[in-house]
Amino acid sequence: MSDAIGGGCHCGAVRYEAAGEPGFSAHCQCADCRKFSGSAHKSFMMMPAGGFTVTGQVSAYDYAGGSGAVITHHFCPACGSGLFSKHAGVTGAVFLYASGLDDPERFRPTMAVYTKSAPSWDHLDPALTTHEEGSRKR
Ligand SMILES: [Zn+2]
Ligand SMILES: [Zn+2]
Predict the structure, then answer these.
(1) d(CA 63, CA 32)
(2) Ligand nearest to the backbone CA of 131
(3) What is the pLDDT of residue 2?
(4) How confident is the model over 2-12, as pLDDT tens digits?
(5) Domain range enclosing 60
(6) Global pTM?
(7) How far is the CA of 77 from the centre of ligand 2 (A)?
(8) How far is the CA of 11 from the centre of ligand 2 (A)?
(9) Any idea of the CA torsion for 75, 77, 80, 83, to the nearest 10 degrees?
(10) Distance 10 CA to ligand 1 centre (A)
């Protein structure tokens, strides 16, 4: 369980490694994540920033998340693959997108958030804990 989680973008210019245990793993069905994902939700796992290393050039884009705090979406400037985000209100963590993992089975989702924004056709595992909005208290 302690071996690092590797991943990267589609073109290979950006690679990353994340060490440590995931804080939580979730699908987010908010409208922002729908835009970034290219589908109906984004899937991500919270990893400790201290164990996270990136090689290659990464572009960043800031937006206001559901709680109002700034979220910085990071992506490959060459191929556009979304890679991870950082949240202004959550220091010490990176939110790694499951889409970039070398082994997608390393992602083990336990919850779905912003389910109130889900399109009718985006069916998730009914065993997941669901939150109509975000899961964190302010
Ligand atoms: Zn790329
Ligand atoms: Zn979202």
Answers:
(1) 9
(2) 2
(3) 53
(4) 589 999 999 99
(5) 22-130
(6) 0.93
(7) 21
(8) 25
(9) -20
(10) 5
